[in-house]
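Researcher: Going back to the complex we discussed earlier. I've cleaned up the inputs and rechecked each line, so this should be the final set. Can you rerun the prediction on the complete assembly and write out the structure?
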Amino acid sequence: MKNNNLSILLKGIIKENPVFVLILGTCPSLATTNNVAGALGMGLAALVVLICSNVLISLLRKIIPDSVRIPCYIVIIAGFVTIVEMIVHAYFPALYDMLGVYLALITVNCIILGRAEMFAGKNSVGKSALDGIGMGLGFTVALVLMATIREVLGNASFAGNPIALLEPYKIEFLVKAPGGMLVYGLLIALVYVITRGKAPLKKSFSCAGCPNAGSCQTACTSAQAPESEKGDAQ
Amino acid sequence: MNTQLKLSVSPHIHSGRSTRRIMLDVLIALLPATAAGAVIFGLRSLLVVAVTVAACVGFEALFSLIAKKPIPVGDLSAAVTGLLLALNLPANIPLWQCVVGSLFAIVVVKGLFGGLGANPVNPAITARVFMLVAFATLTKAAFPTIVDTASSATPLAAEKATSLTDLLLGLHGGAIGETCAAALLLGGVYLLVRRVITWHVPVAFIGTVFLTSFIMEGMDATAALAAILSGGLLIGAIFMATDYVTSPATPWGKIIFGLGASLITFLIRYFGSYPEGVSFAILFMNILTPYISSWTRRRIFGMGGSKA
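Model: Rerun complete. Updated structure for the full complex:
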């Protein structure tokens, strides 16, 4: 895979979109996308944390011992999340109330841990920062897209502003959790159609890309499980 | 007669049965229920039927066009989906909701999974479940226009029991096509005679619901009869649970399918928060169908006794 800087930045937006292609960060994607404002806030908060943690982890990648890298990543990520949470609490109290526990849960967001493990732990600081920006933007775009569909069709409003035209045609189901699942599935299908043949699915999901690769070498070498599962899904 | 399985080499004679012919038979079998709905709920119900069928056929053609596939409208399966869906809707439903339901049935449930034969769940029943959770109006059933009725709920939700004659004739609240038990049974007999469906699923489904209701109602046969004649049980068991694509193909598989569906129906009716559970039950069993099919797969003749 050629790693020129532009492709690192852009791949997070569609080709390796963390939500629709890598299927990471599912929980916040479903929970915070019933309105556009919350989704945008969530996306931006995760973007900031992702950039900061990617940079710091990349800086420390030679120092952190391999066997305890996950706890180290978590401490770094949790530190940044705490900072972001305090800032949001101080300056955007409405957003803080809207996101609730999901803001603190950015700590265990798979996208951030996943990028730390897959990318920042192996690449230079500059590239990791670009990867963080690209993936964070991809996450934000995905959340806002989902939230737009759900809020406009489900609640007849956009970012809290009512759309009178759609008021009688609301499908309230879409702002509830099962509706979120439905929209999520349809968007995954759509992105798959758009990127068919281009998304490096197998490569990303092979053993080398798996966060547990270090601890499950025997299982990985004896059976190429992730590959065959992926084949079935297609 | 010799009941042993006769095997022969090719050439085989085509029986003349086609998807189109089977779908046409289902449409014919649904006609009595549609007519009964029009009589009971007024002409508005025919409008709902027309809009839903037209929307389903239209979306099928449109989706095939966009997906660059041959347009399969001629096989009538979209029309069957549309008619079944419409018969599951109350007559007073806003028409735009019919269109959204049709879009869901044809595009999301059928088209995106690869068209007829590749859909994992029955499009009509899934669209009904979708509309049940998406639109509050669907739970408020329409009422017959030809009789005066003071109650405001379907028989399953009503306090006062509806008489068996009324249930048989369909003179009570509910969806367009699900109330008139006599018309549905007539359609079911037609399908059985035409060998479009076999008896396994409907008998297992309806029989088990009768038995469980009989026990739950304190050995009261009238109440148990009322339980099988009300709600969406007949239309579900005869027309939707027998869908070729989404129910098992083996006789034992069909019986397990019917038993499972009736058990879930019974649980939802007696212990759930919804008054009716037939559509959820069929949807759930649709999802289990591949597993039931593989459990009940016939051992290939002459392949020895090893249990694989």
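Model: Worth noting: The longest strand of chain A covers residues 157-158.
Researcher: Good, that matches what I expected from the previous run.
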